[in-house]
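User: Sequence in, structure out. Go.
Assistant: Echoing your sequence, followed by the structure tokens.
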Amino acid sequence: MTGKKKVFLDASIFVAAAGAASGGSSLILEVCRGLLFSAVTTRRILLEAQRNIRKKLPSDAILRFYKEIAKLNPEIIGPPTEEKLSQYNDIIALKDRHVLASALKSKAAFLITLDRKHFQTEAMRQANLSIIIMTPKEFLELVKKYKDFKK
């Protein structure tokens, strides 16, 4: 395997990791600090995560979020153009177009999200996208299989 595989992280992963230091999303962040994978996201996603953490979680969660971001040091890519966003109008909810467009722009191998409702739909499956969209659990199972295979 040459170089690290990019893993694009949605806001839901950061929120869940801030809320539970030992959950699957926290493990995703740990995996992305290793030798095989690196994290990619956008400023907009980090701001969305920060807003949701402040609104929905206890006050210590925001500190955990900041510490995790500092340890993770993700690649931050710029926002997609309106033209790029409009390419995805028919396959995903308008509020989530920026996530999909940014993930594809980043050339990540995986997009990790807890948002099954919008990202694991028939329209998304039929779109034949150049990225694998997974939940944290699915991704961690894949990583475990890979590690078991390497033994």
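User: And one key feature?
Assistant: The chain has a mean pLDDT of 92.
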